[in-house]
Amino acid sequence: MKVVVAENCGFCPGVRNAISLAEKILTQRKMVYSLGPIIHNKDVVERLAKKGLKTVSSLQEIRSGTVLIRSHGVAPEQIAKIKEKGLKIIDATCVLVKRVQRIAKQLSGGGYKVVVIGNENHPEVQAVVGCAEDVIVVADESDLHKLPKNSKLGIVCQTTQSPEYFGEMLRAIAQIGFSELKVINTLCREAIKRQKSAVQLCKQVDVMFVLGGIESANTRKLAEICKKYNRQTFHLQNWNELDISMLFGKNIVGVTAGASTPEWIITDFVENLKAFDTDNS
Question: Which of 77, 94, 111 is at the close of a domain?
Answer without folding.
Answer: 94
